[in-house]
Amino acid sequence: MRAQPNGSQLNFRTPSRTAAPAPDLKMAVHGPVVKIHPVVLASIADSYERRNEGASRVIGTLLGTVDKHSVEVTNCFSVPHNESEDEVAVDMEFAKNMYELHKKVSPTEVIIGWYATGFDITEHSVLIHEYYSREAVNPIHLTVDTALQSNKMNIRAYISAQMGVPGKTVGVMFTPLTVKYIYYDTERIGVGLLQRTRDAPNRAKGLTSDLCQVGGAATRVQDMLTTVLAYIEEVLSGKVQADNSVGRFLTDLVSKVPKISAEDFESMLNSNINDLLMVTYLANLTQAQIALNEKLVIL
């Protein structure tokens, strides 16, 4: 592999004897667990939809945190690049500037690897991974099948390891890692809204009011309580074998419920709802006054 600087770009040429990567599609047994946030997947899909005409895939830098047992991917940004049969050019100046800007907003996020859209790992992937090996220790490579070749978006993570005979042709083998999806509470709201668009005729869904969100949350809690009660009844009747871990979890859950009478709970709930409605009314009134003032200024 030969790296040739060209202004703000770094050009990699594929050597004639570079060993092709051989990814294993099975789940990893050893290695860190890769935890991915929804905002990362949304950003990758958006960069793929906005790719330049004629580009077959997009690549970018992954940001996040690393500990002894896991790698958490919390952010990413795309990096411009061009590919041909024997060469790939990556705009490294752009990547460095973007990372510096991200550090000003989130100083704890560091470069942990890179992503590429597509299902396969190519020889160009080996060359790009070589660069990110200089920016991070044991960087991960994330592939996102945005073309849905298997009728779903396959998401896989890899780490690389060199293979071959010392002093001879050396290749790179990509070993798969276990991928899990996690989210913050704010991300969960966005994911829930996206899921509701699946049933909408025009694939669009607006934000619901605070009162509707409270009603939806209450309905979900009621459904979960119904499921728990059905499970308990089946255990008591002998239809289902008791699970000690589930029992401990339910005991801990019940012990956290505050002891309060139904009358006091209803009074407290009504008071909070009234406060919420009052705040909503004042916010709408303020918004109307601001809009009226803007129109008076224009006149």
TrEMBL record:
Residue intervals passing through the bilayer: none
Keywords of the record: Cytoplasm, Initiation factor, Protein biosynthesis
Family in the record: Belongs to the eIF-3 subunit F family.
SMART domains noted in UniProt: JAB_MPN
A cellular component annotation (GO) from this entry: eukaryotic translation initiation factor 3 complex, eIF3m
Localization of this protein: Cytoplasm
Domain MPN: 34-164
Protein's name in the database: Eukaryotic translation initiation factor 3 subunit F
Known partners and oligomeric status: Component of the eukaryotic translation initiation factor 3 (eIF-3) complex, which is composed of 13 subunits: EIF3A, EIF3B, EIF3C, EIF3D, EIF3E, EIF3F, EIF3G, EIF3H, EIF3I, EIF3J, EIF3K, EIF3L and EIF3M.
Gene: EIF3F
CDD domains hit by this protein: MPN_eIF3f
GO biological process, one term: formation of cytoplasmic translation initiation complex
InterPro entries noted in UniProt: eIF3f, EIF3F/CSN6-like_C, JAMM/MPN+_dom, MPN
Functional description taken from the UniProt entry: Deubiquitinates activated NOTCH1, promoting its nuclear import, thereby acting as a positive regulator of Notch signaling.
Example GO molecular function: translation initiation factor binding
